[in-house]
Every structure is written in C-alpha cells, then in structure tokens.
Amino acid sequence: MSYQVSDLLGIKRKRNETTLALAYSVQKGLPVSALDKFAGRVAPQDVRRFTYRVVPKPTLERRRKQKQLLSTEESNRLARIAKVFAFGLEVFRDEAKVRSFLDRPHPMLDDKAPLEIALATGPGAAFPIYDAEGARRYPGRWNTHTRPIIYTSEHYSTALLEKLVHANLVMPANQHYIEITIPNGISYEIFQTAAHPGWDSRNEDICKAFAQDWYDERRSALLIVPSIPARLERNVLINPAHPEAKGITYTMPEPVW
What we know:
Elements: H1 5-8, H2 20-28, H3 32-42, H4 47-54, H5 57-66, H6 72-92, H7 95-103, H8 114-120, H9 133-137, E1 150-153, H10 156-166, E2 176-177, E3 180-181, E4 188-190, H11 205-217, E5 222-226, E6 234-238, E7 249-250, E8 254-255
Parallel strand pairs: 4-5
Antiparallel strand pairs: 1-6, 2-8, 3-7, 5-6
Helix pairs in contact: 2-6, 3-4, 6-7, 6-8
C-alpha cells in the first residue's frame, strides 16, 4: 500500500521496516499525537469531534494531561480507520473524495457510513469474531440464513487464503483473527467428498443441503470440510446451537497486518 498507514499517523518508519512494526506500535500504544495528526486528514473541518469518536472525551483529555499513550484498543481502532483511509486513497487518489465516501451512507452497509462501520467493528464491535451473525446475514457455501454457523480453518494460513479468495485477492481492512481451542472428546463429522460428486461446483446446493441436515439433526458440534482453494487443507464448521459447542474456547482478537 503506497499510502502508508504509519505516514498518515505521523509515525516515523525505519529503513526496511516491516508492516509488523506498526502492529507492535499498536500493541504498545500509539501517541495521542498520532490521533491528532490523522484527525486533521480525515476530518479537517471538525478535528475535535473526530478525536472524541475514536477516544471518549474524558479519556482522551486524561491521556493528554498525564501524557499517556493510547490504549491498545484505542490504538487498534485508530490504525483500523487509517487503513481504511489509506485504501480509499489508493482508489480515489483524492482526500476530499475519500472523506466524502467515508461519511456517506452506503446501501451495502445497511445504509451506514463506512466511517461509522470502521469505528464500530473489530474488538468491542456489535458482533464478535466468534459469532454466527455474519453467516446469518451473508450465508456461505455451507449454510443458509436460517442456519447460521461459525466458519473456521484448521490453520491460520488457510484462513487467510480463504479470505483472500473471497475478497478477490485484496485483503480487506480491519481483519482480526482468534485461536480456537476444541476440547478433547467433542463430536465431529467429516464430509465425504467421494459420496457427493459435484460438491465443489459453483452451485452450492449439495453443500447447503448436507450441512442443513447436519445442523438440524445436531449430529455433531463440528463438521470438517475441505477448503475449496486448498483441497489438502480443511475448514471446521461449528454449529453454535449444538450443546457441545459451549465447551469451545478462543483467544482475544489480534489484528491481521
């Protein structure tokens, strides 16, 4: 990304510094000056109001007075919005157009403005990562609106590949991941591809019909299926309505940089 997030935040980059450096800075806590600098770019007409949308006024003023860094969550929120802004610059090549786009309600976002979504998503958002709401709203190959499941991958690399394929090879902004721990003895079923010819075609009916019966009958808490883009890899579908699903635990979200 030619428009570097670190530049938007006024963070000095060292030569040959990797993108992980920004992740480390976020984890440590960004300076309040990063918020002030970026606010001047994204909301030049109302800098103060924007800063208070990222960090509540009492908290931000306390950070200023005590010369504190932003918290990890606050820094993550700021970096997330900066990434969206940087991506907008890649597309529009004009800051005024990016600001207009960010503040304008979009029909694909339930008539919410992209900036509103960027401020709300991620850790502390309306829907956590380990949640079936996304699959309910936007069903995948293995589910329908009425049978929401949680899509996971066996490996981090497989999850990234799946995301890239579904995003036309451009990683969307504000991506986070969690690590899931499945307890010993939890029930699972493996989808047998040989018994279902045509399962991997563009028509998803075979997969949806199989998973629908699996979901309704609560045959197991997990359904293990092949990854479409990487056939030797596997995805793990979780039925959150299954009693055993309550035993699954997961870590705090971490940003994908």
